[in-house]
Structures are given as structure tokens and as C-alpha cells.
């Protein structure tokens, strides 16, 4: 199965590089095609892969933190708070600083959700999910209010919120790659603890796992991944929900398999989705990537909700 994922990623990567408004023969490029390849196509495909990997990994981490199969960056409010910070940057005309504002918004949202969900230093997963929903609602309302106040920037805000990789650069690729590596290394030594965390907290604590410290670390890493992804690509929802569940169906259950596979699967999915967004319309027009992922994710979310409603219903 891991070989299948690698083949899928390689196939999507090659197809993404060669296909688009201008088809490029990778083995025989003209000067114009070479400029398009190195200045536009390659940074965009790499950024799409990195954002997909970051969102898929953050989704897995949120699901471990909350012990909830429906948790991801989109449903916990971190994406919305990051987007709110980015929209403030757009309103102020500070376009180059959008990632910093998104990071600040995401960390502020992270801190708020943590304060609401923690009791004497202990994080309550259900309270955290509810706090995330409240935060997402508030952030969405604030974004709508800012769009109402800013007539000049409203088109830029709407276009950015729908998600896309048009503004990809090599520097963004390098920074996001560094963030992914940092986050992955931060939690790489906790594979066994993550598997134990799937049981109840009492069992995990009895085996020597510091449950609450581990949740803080996972929550921070997931929020960091989400904030940078939103800052560079806008809101692209449900990737962290779709990819982990598909991988679990492929028997990637243990954390040592699931986390690396999520990176590869998320990258392949996002590159393929971006390719569809670039080619589905005629005359070189592009469909926002967030529209495609939200359409797929909405149907998938409903499927999970119906299939697993007995597991998610806690009252008799």
C-alpha cells in the first residue's frame, strides 16, 4: 500500500508539472516552456503538495487530540481564525505579510480554544471541539463584517478565501517545507504514545503517558501546520478529514504508518486536485481549489456522519 501511495504521488507530480493551460514536454522544453516550468509550474505544484501534506498531517493530529474521527483544522476553528488574520492583512494592504497575520490569527485561536477547553491544565476533547465550532462561527462572522466594510478589497478577500496556489514562490515552498519537517520531527518520537492515546485517558496515564502534555504538543503542531497552509493558500477544507479516513480503510492504523502515509497521501491528493482546478474549465480559467475540496469533503463528511452516527452518539 505504501508503494501505491508513492506511485500515486509521483504520477500526480509529473502530471501536474506537464499539464495545464500550456502543455509542457518535460523531456524537450523550449525557452518559453522552461520559463513557465521553473517560474510558475514547479513552485505551484510543490506548494500544492506541501499544503496537502501539512493539512493531512494536521487533521490526523487533531483527531488524536480530540479522539474524534470528524475533527480536523476546518472543524476545530483553527483554519477560520488563521483566515481572519489573513483577511486583516488584505484589508490593510499588507499582502506580503499575509502568512504572518494568518499565523498570528491561528495561534490566537489556538490559545483561546485551549483556555476554554482546559481545566487545571487538562484538555477536555469534547469541550475543545465545541470551542472550535464557536471560534469558527465567530471568525466567519468577523470576516463577513470586514468584507462589508472593505469595498475595495472585497474581491481579493473572496478570491483568497476560496483557496488556491496562484501566488506560489520558491521561498514559500522552502518555509512550508521547514515547518512540516519541524512539526513531523516534533511528534515522530511519540508514535507509541499516540496509539495508546486512542484508549481512554486513564489507561494511557497508567502506562506512563503524560496525556495532557502530549495533547498540548499535538495541538500546537497541528495549529502551526494549519496556520502556514492557510497563510499561503487560503482556506482549503476537509483534506485533513478525507485523507486519514481513506488511509485507515487501507489498513494504515498504527501511528507509525498513518502519519507518514498522511504526508504522502495528502500531497498526492492536493496536487491532483489542483490539476483538476487548472484544467476543468476552458480557455485557461481556473476553478478555486477550495471549491473542489469542500465539495468532496462535504459529501465525505456526511457519509462519515451517517455511517458512524452510533459511535458519535453518546447518550442512550
The strands making up the biggest β-sheet line up spatially as 1-2
Counted beta strands: 2
Fourth-level CATH superfamily: ABC transporter involved in vitamin B12 uptake, BtuC
- Portion of residues within helices: over 70%
Give the N-to-C terminal Cα separation: 39 Å
Number of helices: 14
Shape: globular
Major sheet characteristics: 2 strands, antiparallel
Strand portion, in percent? Answer: under 5%
Enumerate the spans where pLDDT stays under 50 for 5 or more consecutive residues.
312-316
Number of domains: 1
Mean pLDDT: 85
The CATH class designation is: Mainly Alpha
The value of Rg in angstroms is 20 Å
For this structure, the CATH topology is ABC transporter involved in vitamin B12 uptake, BtuC
Write the element-wise H/E pattern from the N-terminal end onward: HHHHEEHHHHHHHHHH
Q: What structural class do you assign from the helix and strand content?
A: mainly alpha
Task: Quickly list its features.
ABC transporter involved in vitamin B12 uptake, BtuC; 316 residues; globular; 1% strand; 14 helices; disordered C terminus; two-stranded antiparallel sheet; mainly alpha
Layout of strands and helices, then pairs:
Blueprint: H1 2-18, H2 31-66, H3 78-91, H4 98-117, E1 118-119, E2 122-123, H5 125-149, H6 154-161, H7 170-188, H8 191-197, H9 201-206, H10 211-233, H11 239-249, H12 255-279, H13 289-307, H14 309-312
Antiparallel strand pairs: 1-2
Helix pairs in contact: 1-2, 1-12, 2-7, 2-10, 2-11, 2-12, 3-4, 3-5, 3-6, 3-10, 4-5, 4-10, 7-10, 11-12
